[in-house]
User: Fold this.
Amino acid sequence: MTHYFSEKQESAINLKKIKIKIEETSLEFYSSSGVFSKDELDKGTKLLIENAEIGQNWDVLDLGCGTGVVGLFVKKRNPGTKILMADINERAVMLSKKNIRLHGFDNIEARKSDVFSNIKEHFDAILLNPPQTAGREVCFKMIEESKSHLKKDGLLEIVARHNKGGETLSKKMGEVFGNVRDIAKKGGFRVYISQNSHDENR
Assistant:
């Protein structure tokens, strides 16, 4: 059985467009079966987009990008950012590329990668709605490997249901980074941020 975090999808592609509005910004997206939250924006991702801490001209990674909703909204709100969107799911990457072309943004790329297997760059922020149904080990790996892909003072920003695994993930972030803080909570979801305070990656 395939999941949205599987490399290849078995279901037929039923391409469609959906419109997503966050605050005053509306964007259209190509979507299909075989990707996360294919019909509408999920509440966790919405909370992450609304509260993400992003500076001007930052390098940002949308890890596990799905159709590219997080990366494209960040780019729309922060035009100077350079965005990399990455997913193991080949269909998600294909749709993200279509959505980049749809909006005509510069300095934004979609790339296939199993976590960081195909990512060598370092980032000011990594944004993640972790695939908790893929299991704790996968989510822990994403947190652990994020540290070596963040610039000094770079931020790992994660959204999760606090009482359904999120608390465990936030504790892991605290162990890996030595710090973690909640910056938003709504509908059972919380956004957790850890800062990479060391320059040990250079």
In short: The chain has a mean pLDDT of 89. The longest strand covers residues 150-161. Helices lie at 43-51, 69-77, 90-103, 136-147, 162-177. The chain has one domain: 16-195.
